[in-house]
Amino acid sequence: MSRTIPLRTLASYEAADAIKRDLRFHLKYTLGRLPEQATPRELLHALSLAVRRPVMEAFLDTEWRQRGAKRVAYLSMEFLMGRALENNLLNLGLREAAGEALTEFGTELDTLCAREQDPALGNGGLGRLAACFLDSLATLDLPATGYGINYEYGLFRQEIRNGEQREHPDPWLDASVPCLIERPEEAVLVPVYGRIVEDVDARGEYNPMWLGWRLIVGVPHDFLVVGFGGSTVNPLRLFSARSSDDFDMRIFNSGDYILAMQEKIATETISKVLYPADDIPAGRELRLVQEYFLVACAVRDILRRFRDTGAALDQFPAKIAVQLNDTHPALAVAELMRVFIDEEGLDWERAWELTRGAVAYTNHTLLSEALEKWPVSLLEHVLPRHLQLIYEINRRFLAEVDARWPGDDARRYRMSLVEEGEPKQVRMAHLAIVGSHSVNGVARLHSDLVKTQLVPDLHDMWPERFNNKTNGITQRRWLLQANPALAQLLTRVVGTRWLTHLEHLRRIERLADDPGFQDDFTAVKRHNKERLARVIADTTGVLVDPSSLFDVQIKRIHEYKRQLLNVMHVLHLYRSIIDDDVTLPGPRTCIFSGKAAPGYALAKRIIHLIHAVADLVNHDPRVRGQLKVVFLPDYRVSLAEQIVPAADLSEQISTAGKEASGTGNMKLALNGALTIATLDGANVEIQDEVGPDNIFIFGLTVAEVEARRRRQDYDPRQLYTEDAALRRVVDAIADDSLCPRRPGAFSEIAARLLVGDEYFHMADFHSYVTTQDHAANEFRRHRSWTRKAILNVARMGKFSSDRTILEYADEIWGLTPVK
Fold first, then answer.
1. What are the respective helix, strand and coil percentages of the chain, to the nearest 5?
2. Angle at the Cα of 749 (from 745 to 753), degrees rounded to 5?
3. Is the peptide bond preceding residue 423 cis, with omega within 30 degrees of 0?
4. Whether 663 is catalytic
5. 572 an active-site residue?
6. Which of 769, 763, 768 has the alpha carbon at shortest distance from 705?
C-alpha cells in the first residue's frame, strides 16, 4: 500500500537542514563525537542544543522588545515544568523539521524525547499551575519572569517496595540540561541570621542596624519558556545557593578547614531539595531559609530589572507586578519594605504604598495546616530585621482595626498577623493579604470560601481586594503534546485556532451525535488506552484490558483528596463479586498514581493499602477479569501525559470545601474523560460548562459538610452499624486478611474511619457507590458515553490558562501584551 507523503514547504525543508547542521556541529564540537558514534543520550543533548539556537534568538528579541514595559514577577516555590524539548519544538513549529532531521541519524523524535528527564522542581498542582501560567504568559506576549529555586534533587523519586513507598533522591541536574542557562554574572547576595543593633540616624530618629549576618550567594539559572508561535520567550529564573567566598575564606584563613567546608555544605543545602521535612527543628529552619532565599533573590533581581528601565522609584508599581503563588513567598512583603526603608531610605508610608501597590496574593488552600505559620522565635533567629518589620506592619494594621471596630478584642485577635499562644506565631497568609492590593482564590467556590470561612474579618475590612481567578491549563501541553491523535482529529474538524483560543472547540458539539466522528473519537481513545496498557505492563507487570473502563485517580496522596474512598469502592466491588456473585456491568481497571509526603504516615499507609487491595484483586481467579487495580509509581508530568489521554473516568472526589480548584479535573475532561466528582473546587464550574447530564456528581455539599461540623452530630460508627456494605468494607480494612504478614498494618486507617472521619468518607460512601454504578452502566452504552465525552472536550474552553492569565493581566497586574 502506497503512503501519502504530505506536502512540505520550502521553509520546513530549510528548518530541517538547519537542525541537521546544528546537530552535527554540537555532536562534533560540543560533545566530541562523530555522528555515527553518538549514543541516544548524546543525540538528545545535541538536539536540545540545536533547538536552543532559535530559542535564544527569540529570547534576546523578546528582551529587547519588552524593555521598559510593565512586567509581572511570578514567585513560586514550585514549577513543575515537564520535559522541555518536545514542548519547545511544538511551540516553535519545528517538530516535523526535527523529526525529519533525525532520520539521518537513524532514530525517531518520540524515542529521543522520551529519554529526557523531568525537571524535579515541583510536587503537584501548585507547581504545574505555575508552569501552565508561564506558557500562557509567553503565548500571550505578556512580559513576565518566573522566580523559583533550582532544586538539585527536587522532591523525590518514588519507588514501591513490598507495596510501600520508598523515597530516593531525584538528581535531575546530574544529566546535562541544555535548557538551563547559568548566569553567574547576575548572582545576588542574601543575608540571613545575625542580630539587630539599636541605633539612631543623624537626625536622631530610630535606625536599627542588621549586623552579623551570614551571606548566601544566589546564582541564577534561566529556564527559557517558549510561547506558542515562538515569538515571545520569557525566563523562569531559578536560583542555586552557593557559599560566599569571603565568608568561607575568613574561616579558612583562621585555620579551620573543616568548619569552612561545613559552612559551605550547609549553605548549599538550601537549594538541594524541595520541601525538607519540617517535623524536626532543623528541617523547619531550612524550609524558612529556603523561602526567604527565594524571596530575597527575586526581590534583588526585580529591582535590578526595574533600575534598568531608568524609572524613578515612585514608578515601581507602574512597572512591576509581584504575584505571590500561595503563602510560601509571603516574606516578599517584609523584604520589599526592608529594601525600600533600609537601602533606599524611603519613609514608612511611601515604602508601604509601593509595596502594596505592586504585590498581589493567590490563596491555594483552605486547610489550616497548609496555611503557613512561623514561630516568632525562629523568625527572630533567622530574620531578625524582618520580624521587626512584621511587628510594625501589624501594629499599624491593628490600629486601623481598632479604629474600625473599637473594643472588639475577639476580632482583633483573629485579624492579627501574630497569633498569640505557645509558641507565638506569625500568620503568613495574613501578612500576604495585608501587604497586597489583590487577594484571589482559584475557583469560584474557593474564592467564596476564602471570604466567608478562611478570613471573613479581612474581607470585611477590604472587600474590594478579594476576587476570583479560576485556574486553567495550557492546551498546548495537555492536548497538542499529550494527545497528538486527538489534536489532529480536532484540527481536521475545526482548524488550528483552538491552540490559542480553546473556546473554538465548541464547534465540535454539532458532531457529538455523528457516528463517523464518534468512531474516529473512539479510535483515538482506544489507541491511547493501548499505549497506557503497555506502560502499565512494563512498569507493574499487570496486564489490563484496553476495552475496560479506565477509572483514573492521579494526584498527590492526601486524606482530603480521598484515594481512600476510591479504594473502599474497589473493595466493595471485589466483595460483591466474591461474596454476592455479582457480575459487574463491564470490566473496570482502577488506576492510581501519586506521591505521599515523606512525613505523612497515613498517606503512605493508604498507598500500602492500595497495593494490598491490588494484590488481592489481581490474583484472585474468582474475579474473572472483571476488575484490575494498578498503582503507577513515581507520578510526574511525563507520566501524566500518558495517563490523561487514556482515561475514561476522572476521579475528583475530594471532601466538599477542601480542594481549592484542581487542574487534573480540567486536563482529564479536555481529553475526553467523564468526571465523577463532589461539588468542590472547579468541579462546580466544570458542571456548569459541560452540563449536569455529562458529569457524575455525588456526595455532601460544602453547606452540608459545614452543617454537620457545626452540629457535631456526625457519627460514622452509626453508618457502619446500619450499612452492611460499608461495614463489610471497613472490616476488610481492619482485619489482617489484606496484609497477613503485617498484622495491624491498616488498623489505623479503619480507626480513623470509625472515630471522627474528618473527611467524611463514611458519609459519602453510599452516594459514591450508587453514582459509580450509574457511571459503569452508562459506559456500556457506547454511543451515549462517547457523546458525553465529545461534549466534555467541546465545552472546556473556559479552562484554558490563557483565559486565566488574561484575567490576571487585566484585573490585577495592569499588564499589556508586547507584540
1. 55, 15, 30
2. 155
3. yes
4. yes
5. no
6. 763
**Is 556 an annotated catalytic residue?**
yes
Catalytic residue among 24, 451, 561, 595: 561
61 CB neighbour count, 10 Å cutoff: 13
In one-letter notation, the amino acid at residue 462 is W
Residue 436 bridge partners (DSSP): none
Question: Which residues make Cβ contacts (< 8 Å) with residue 666, sequence separation at least 6?
Answer: 471, 472, 473, 478, 682, 686, 796, 799
Is 780 strand, coil or helix? helix
How far apart are alpha carbons 421 and 562 in whole angstroms?
32
- Assigned C-alpha cell, 681: 473546587
Catalytic residue (one of 555, 595, 611, 636): 555
Q: Which residue has the cell 462517547?
A: 786
Selected catalytic residue, list 83, 242, 364, 430: 364
The conformation of residue 720, written as its DSSP 8-state character, comes to H
Q: Buried (b) or exposed (e) across 427-443, using 16+ Cβ within 10 A?
A: bbbbbbbbbbbbbbbbb
In tens, the pLDDT along 251-262 reads: 445 555 454 545
Q: Is the pLDDT of residue 567 over 90?
A: yes
Q: How far is CA 815 from the centre of its chain?
A: 24
What does the alpha-carbon distance between residue 480 and residue 429 come to, in Å, rounded to a whole number?
37
Q: What is the DSSP letter of 75?
A: E
In the residue annotation, 555 being an active-site residue is answered as yes
378: left (phi over 0), alpha (psi -120 to 50) or beta: alpha
CA distances from 216 to 76, 181, 329, 819 (A): 20, 20, 18, 38
Q: What is the pLDDT of residue 245?
A: 60
Q: Which three cell numbers stand for residue 100?
A: 525529519
What are the residues facing 235 on neighbouring strands?
224
Q: What is the pTM of this model?
A: 0.94
- What dihedral do alpha carbons 613, 618, 621, 627 form, nearest 10°? 90
Choosing from 608, 611, 667, 752, which is the catalytic residue? 667
Active-site annotation holder among 474, 663, 675, 804: 663
| Cα(456)–Cα(603) distance, integer angstroms | 31
Active-site residue, from 242, 338, 556, 572: 556
pLDDT per position as a tens digit, 222-259: 999 999 999 999 999 999 999 876 445 444 455 554 54
